[in-house]
Amino acid sequence: MNKTVTAKATWMGNMRVEGKAQGHTLTIDQPADMGGADAGPNPLEALLISLGSCQATVAAIVAKQEGIELSDFSVEMEADYDIDFLLGKTQEGRSGFSEIRQKVFIDADLNLEEKTAFFEKVHARCPVTGSLLEETTITYDVE
What we know:
Structural class: alpha+beta
Shape: globular
Number of domains: 2
Helix content: 25-40%
CATH topology of the largest domain: GMP Synthetase, Chain A, domain 3
Number of strands: 5
Strand order of the largest sheet: 1-2-3
Strand content: 15-25%
Order of helices and strands: EEEHEHEHH
Distance between the termini: 31 Å
CATH class of the largest domain: Alpha Beta
Radius of gyration: 18 Å
Largest sheet: 3 strands, antiparallel
CATH architecture of the largest domain: 2-Layer Sandwich
């Protein structure tokens, strides 16, 4: 069964963007050295936060389904991208992350092997992970 998710991003001037979804507002901005006011995470940081947040909520779902008492779950992430491509200084390379590295912390009554198997289920079921790893079609209409 497919479920549709909606969101809207509106440029608010300078480098600030207001994101809205389900009545919630999120400010996205660039740091001062990129011309912003540092009023929120930049879009790439927001993507990493979305990934980790999705994995955390899927971890809660999997834990509940499997009767695992999950005391804590967190993900630290870092990722690399080509800033020269972003700034238009080169046409070689790509615009997206070349790699995302995660360090996953799971506090539950599981040994390391069981924690790894648990996270592999989380990783496989997370829609944000799937959107990043698998080909997702993006269509657009310009008005």
